[in-house]
Amino acid sequence: MLTLKVVVVGSCACGKTTLIRTFLRDDVRDSAPAPTVQEVYVGHMQHDGKKVRLVIWDTGDSDLLCDPHRASCYAEADVVLVCFSVRDIFSGSEVPTRWATEVRHFNPNVPVLLVATQMDLREDPVTVQELAQIKCRPTSVAEGLQLAQKIQAAHYVECSSLDLASVRKVFESVLHTCLRVRSVLCCSIFK
């Protein structure tokens, strides 16, 4: 069975753990997870009739600039999901300055998927009003795509833990990205 190591990073409370738990439960239960220190989950997907094991490392909510526990997670990762919330301007601003830099430092060749979480809040009147009061607005799709290009992400995907199809799309992107990278590596070995 193919096993893929997936590391998930992002600012505190941007929706990392909820994304993972929604995928694993295959259910959109509305629950507020407790802050995570570091957890490792195992999920499965099907590809061409074969089972693929995803070992998902939830790096938690450490705000240390370079948490030594998180740093060790990057070793042998097949893909890193860099998450940010569309409603939190700070989490988006940390993508290039903190998360992409950290990933590239510890595992320079790993593919990165940029994941915008909480996309349902982009059109939420309360969220829009709260952000307008501080002269901000939710991150747009175009801004997310620009951010993905800036950090040279392999893919950009948006999701909401309230929309199971969008959560599944994140992990389908993980699978396709990893398989594409492995295919390229495999083919280049035999050239």
TrEMBL record:
One GO term describing the cellular component: membrane
Q: Which GO terms describe its molecular function?
A: GTP binding; GTPase activity
Q: Has keyword GTP-binding? A: yes
Q: Which UniProt keywords apply?
A: GTP-binding, Membrane, Nucleotide-binding
Query: Which biological processes are named by the entry's GO terms?
Result: ameboidal-type cell migration; cellular process involved in reproduction in multicellular organism; developmental process involved in reproduction; hemocyte migration; melanization defense response; small GTPase-mediated signal transduction
Q: Where in the cell is it found?
A: Membrane
Question: Superkingdom of the source?
Answer: Eukaryota
Q: What InterPro entries does the record point to?
A: P-loop_NTPase (IPR027417), Small_GTP-bd (IPR005225), Small_GTPase (IPR001806), Small_GTPase_Rho (IPR003578)
Keyword Membrane tagged: yes
Q: What is this protein called?
A: Uncharacterized protein
